[in-house]
Every structure is written in C-alpha cells, then in structure tokens.
Amino acid sequence: MLRIYRDWQQLLLRLGKEASDEVKVREVNQFFNQRLHYMEDIELWKQVDYWATPLESMSKGSGDCEDYAFAKYFTLRELGVAPQKLRMIYVKARIGGPASSITQAHMVLAYYPAPTVEPLVLDSLISSIMPASQRSDLQPVFSFNGDGIWVGGGSAPNASVDRLTRWRQLIDKMKAEGFIN
Length: 181
What we know:
Strand order of the largest sheet: 6-5-4-3-7-8
Structural class: alpha+beta
Number of helices: 6
Largest sheet: 6 strands, antiparallel
Strand content: 15-25%
Number of strands: 8
C-alpha cells in the first residue's frame, strides 16, 4: 500500500501542474491499470459486490472493474477535471469480442472532452483509451456520476444518484477516510 499511495501522491503533485485534461486522463488511466491487479470482490472482500474507495483499492493493490473506475474518477476529480466530463458507465461486455453472445456486467469510466463530443472509454481491461464508437464489445446500460444517473441518451440526468445505495455508501466511506468533504 505504501508504495502505490506514495506514487499516487506524486502523480497528483505532478499532474496538478498540468493544464491539459487529456494528459491527466491518459496518465491516471495508465497509473491504475499498471498498479492495481484485477481481483473479484468475492475473493478480495469476501462479498459478492463491494464498491471500494480508491484508498481501499490502493491498500489492497487490487480491485475489480468498478474499483478501477472509481479510483480513476476520484483521482481525476481531485486533479480538477470537471464532474460533467466524467461518468461511470455500467455496461454489458461481450466476452470474446463484439460477435460473442456471452456477456458479463462490467464498469468503465467515460471522459467527455466536451458536452457534444463522443466520450472516450477508460477500461481496466484495455490499456488504450478509445472512443465509445470503437468499443462495440460494450453495450451501455446506464451511466452516473455525482450529479445523477443517465439512462439512454440525453444531456441531462434522468434520476438522482441517491437511488444508487452502493454509491451513497462509497461516498460515506470516502468522507470517513477524509478523502472528500
């Protein structure tokens, strides 16, 4: 934990001076994809579905797909990336590629450079950041951030994020850790 946490603090210091959101997105994606090891919640936390804070993920050096997405999201928010530019997207991922009929629940982080621009997808399984249109293996179900939940298209949220119990629990844990106010 100490090493990854120290490296993360150095990343924050280094990127805090960087003006470009695109550089921040690329570096943060690479940081977590290289330093966290994928592990299912049942093995790591002895629970079927556990949403870990970034500090919890760093302490274990591991996490599952949503833990990567949250670590990237909150790190980018800490670096000043506007909340409306970031959303977690719950997707059905086609295992084995776009033609496969086998799907699995998966979460990625989307970065919207501008409101009307196609989002870029930050994925724990693929190191390169790609436009959503190039990720035909992912079928979006809904997306969310601290501002709300989006189902289908549209520029405004369809529902309050308070409907996501695990999100509220995650925010409460982060407040207890002193990560957010």
